[in-house]
Automatic annotation (TrEMBL), chain A:
Subunit of novel type of clathrin- or non-clathrin-associated protein coat involved in targeting proteins from the trans-Golgi network (TGN) to the endosomal-lysosomal system. PANTHER family: ADAPTIN, ALPHA/GAMMA/EPSILON. It comes from Myripristis murdjan. This is AP-4 complex subunit epsilon. Residues 727-740, 864-878 have a biased composition (Polar residues). The gene is AP4E1. Belongs to the adaptor complexes large subunit family.
TrEMBL record, chain B:
InterPro entries: AP1_sigma (IPR044733), AP_complex_ssu (IPR016635), AP_mu_sigma_su (IPR022775), Clathrin_sm-chain_CS (IPR000804), Longin-like_dom_sf (IPR011012). This is AP complex subunit sigma. GO terms for biological process: intracellular protein transport. It is a peripheral membrane protein. It comes from Myripristis murdjan. SUPFAM superfamilies: SNARE-like. Its main location: membrane. The gene is ap1s3b.
Amino acid sequence: MSDVVEKTLTALPSLLSLDSQPGSGKLSSTSKLGNLIRGITELTSKHEEEKLIQRELSSIKEQVASPNTSMRQMKELMVRAIYCEMLGYEASFSYIHAIKLAQQGTVLEKRVGYLAVSLFLNESHELLLLLVNTVLKDLQSTNLIEVCMALTVVSQMFPKDMIPAILPLVEEKLTHPKEIIRRKAVLALYKFYLIAPNQVQHIHNKFRKALCDKDPGVMTASLHIYLQMIKENPEGYKDLTASFVTILKQVVGGKLPMDFNYHSVPAPWLQIQLLRILSLLGKDDQSTSEMMYEVLDESLRRAEMNHNITYAILYECVKSIYTIHPKAELLEKAAKCIGNFVLSPKINLKYLGLKALTYVVQQDANLALQHQLTIIECLDHSDLVIKRETLELLFRITNAQNVTVIVEKMLEFLRLSKDDYTTIDLVGKVAELWFIETMNTVFSLGGDMMQPDIPNSFLRLLSEGFDSTEEDRQLRLFAVDSYVSLLQGEPGRLPQRFLQVISWVLGEYSHLREGLEPATTLRLLAKLLDMKHTSSETKSWVLLAMSKLCEGPDCVSLAQELSERHGGSLDTVLRQRVQELRHLSEDAELRASVLPRDAAQEPLEVDSSLSFLDGFVSEALSAGAAPYKPPHQRQEELAQAKALSLEPYGLSLPISMSSCSLADRQSPTLLSMSSGLSGNSTDLSHKGGSTTLKLDGVKRVWGKDGYLAQKEPVEESAQVEVPSPLCSPSRQGGADSTHSQTPTPTPTPEPEKEKQQLASSLFVGLGSQSSVCLMGKSEQTPQRFRRKAKGQGSSSGASEQISNSHYSTQSTVDNLLCNNLLDSTVTSDLAVSTPEQTPQLSQEVATTNGTCDAEQDLIEETDPGNSPSLIRANSTVTADPPAHKDPDRPKDSCLSSHLPAELAGLSHSEIIPLCSSQNLDLSACHVQKEDALLLVIFIENSSDSDIECLLFLSQVSCVTDSPVEAVRSLSVSVYQYSLMVKRPAAHVALAGTASYHMALLTQSMLVSCFCLTSLLFLCLGRPLCVSTEEYGTLWLAFSQDTKQNLALLNDGQDPLTATLDVLKNKLQLHVVDIIGAEGIVACRLLQGQPCLMHCRVHAGSLAVWLRSPVPDLPDCLLYHCQRALQEH
Amino acid sequence: MMRFLLLFSRQGRLRLQKWFTPTPEREKKKIIRDMTTMVLARKPRSCNFLHWRDLKIVYKRYASLYFCLALEDQDNELLALEILHRYVELLDKYFGNVCELDIIFNFEKAYFILDEFLMGGEIQETSKQIVNRSIEASDMLQEDDNSDWYEVELFG
């Protein structure tokens, strides 16, 4: 305190002189505030301070009440009153004067008045009503500063029910010429929207106008409203996505004025606002998300500068990327970004990194694995906030295997933490995780000897739940999960009590688990019925649970089967349950009314006097039945009669009946009551003679041992047994020293080891595969690691053979190339260093060569060539047709036999090889059909195993049913594609890939065919039969035309007819009419696009004029006419 | 959205308070007490973030003064730190080498600056120049002024 006093005192003179600056008001009154402050700092006790302030307040009170006090003095008094209030002393007498000051003062005084009002009064304060008129007046003022002040105070605090009074005026300000007014008006409306959304409903379209405001500040302000509205209803604003993306793009691109920069980062607040809006819009919506991928990528890229504000943007970006529909590439970048946060030495960034991890870990548990050592470090961080955040993260990755360690850590934290809120939160979480697990242990170990009210109160807790429904759901879900997995294990070891609890929980809550079919649960439960050790009491619990679950045809048949098997049981209760099960499974409606879902905690009206049975009883009595005796009376009678054998007849039946039929159908409260009343077998044995008790004890000891012996290995395996070689600490050490991928080559020091051990117990069971890569920080992704391992294990034998044979056929050049490639990849990529990757590599080499050839072909293909081969494959050499024909000849004839029957009769082009690998050969030909042009592709498998091959070609549609087919060994598969040409072009290239599986690896090769449209026309052109009149109308309708002169044939007869005949025969044109020296011709492409030709003999040549609706078709036809006439 | 902003000294004395949502007096007192004890108890080299009930607290110390801002769950902590920083920059620009005493003796000015910077719990204006221009323009106003001239100055 003393140094402040000193500082204050030394600073005072300069402070007082400072006050001479313009507008700071009267020296005298400021010095009064100064005096007050100085006076306070001079005091030594709280008591003195109180006295001083009270004195000050009464002096202020006196002055404000005096009619002689000017507004100017009032202003200074208000400042002092504010100061006193800030110190915690009430100055409520000044409130009314604050309002008066705001009402009557000049601009400067008004400002202090408004400030005082906003500090003194709450939204609900009655005096606030007096302010409404002042605000109204100021909103209408011509003085812009007054308008600004009014808008500010309105957004600060304004009575909800008075909003309608000023709303029109605020609304009006949205079109104000001054941007600062518009901006404040938008923010004021935002505030109204928050406190009374209904009242601003009608101005939503004005918000849109604000969004489009030419001033970026107004636009930014409107985003607050949009964020809120989109949060409530994302569907309603999807149409704005493109606009938001555009705005963000412009902001990121630095298109805003410099004023908006913050430390040379363009408008970070605006950017973050937009990112938040986009993530809301893109959530669970793929098409909307696709619109924003680019700008998100851009934002990530631009925000590289090392400044807090860029990290803020990055963090928001990462959150958006993980919120919207995922895109692998962006996720990868975002994950890297999270890594930068987590590994940052700056503690704030580390904190956010943990938060981000917590956010994404459910989608991508591997990310947590990668940073596990950092997480462990954070767990021991001296800053409790970091520690808590880490626990939050661990809470998200808790599973059955690591729950013990995590709960332990949480409890450790609880011991340190003093904050109530954290404690409540954490205790809830611990309870959720730990409760079920521990109760499982309690039930398994405690077995049947525990007090009956333990399971009862457990069930009551579970069904009554805690405060929040979500937590209850989680807890029940956790219970269901853990019980299902227990039943899937060896339920035979579980005590009867526990089995009863399990059945009840599954019956009530297994519907909570999505994807868990009732039939699956039923089968698990049915298994219990068949076990020898299951007592009949447990069996009726099980059957009741089954009746609750019975839904769907599967279950009906199961119920039927059960009723056949157990329907003849000696136990009547069991028989009854089975009958119930069967009937209820057949009648869903009845089941719903008898056993309503989620009704466990609803009080059932129980007619305890059973009055509805009165008629039945009186009938029975009149028919001579014995009157009813309550159990205790019966027992007494029995005891008197010294009846010996109580157990099999007298007791077990009524008791199990009472405890089951009442309790588990209704509420656990009743359950505990009924079992408390009547007891059950365990209780009875306690009540029985000392001999029985002893016997029981012996049995239990044996039983306990049995359980312990069985239980221990189970527990151990839950914690340690992970299918990874790196898990147990001892093995870890070995792995560290031998494994080349560990970042630390030196033997791990003790504490490190401890951490790793902790890591392995924490991160157990995470990730898509079970091999936990302990040193998760290494670049390698676990999948790759795994694939490699798998390859080593299984495929090496077979594939090596393949690769060897492959090598022998390869030329030396290829081998060299292959080896070179291999070398380079080894250095760059660890994953391909294993020998069995070689076939893939060499395959890639072959593929690359193939592509090169194809490209070369494309380049060389300047001359269309004489042979009308439709398809030029990459292996053909145009300049030398016989060279490729000859070797292909035999193949051609042998492959043509594989043509499908319906195509066999049609003419087909020669079969040309497209590409080949060591086992597969692809060839193709085309077949001319009446209505289509088919491309037929032959896949020849020369290996001795079946190969599954997926062929994908662009631009063609597949005729064959399934594009995936297994090509049997040493045989040929045929695919048909119908060729479509959307638009005539200079040439059409068909490209595609064939991927096939061989020795676990998917390989692919490129297929490329090369078609010339002019040749294509030959196959695709068809005559168009039209009359002269139709021709006329068509002619006028077409827009694309070309004119040219063609050579005229002179064969002696009429040159026009002769020329057209040639064209007709060669190009399948239809000659519509010939009139004198003019002829009209029509044709169409296969898909129906027509082309018309008008010919006129003129000066020894044929002047043709072509028209078509398709742009390139006339040129194409013309070109072909020239060719046809030349060839003739 | 921001919930409240508190400025207090190393001794825990409140220097400025701004509540963006309606809060009862009693609650305010409790929050102020909680904030000062929590923030002042933080060790150096801890992170600048805290949890308090369902709110996120972002605080930063500038010389002898602590700035403490409460955020809602969705808000960005790093950005909040920059809000505090920008506010300090604004104060610095207005007072020139701002120190705690400036804020003690001219707290109403600090409020006015804050009102130009934040509004209704959201950022209103981030430009230092613009905020200062409007504050200075209002400061210049005199009682008998009809302020036409200053409006030109303020609204450019």
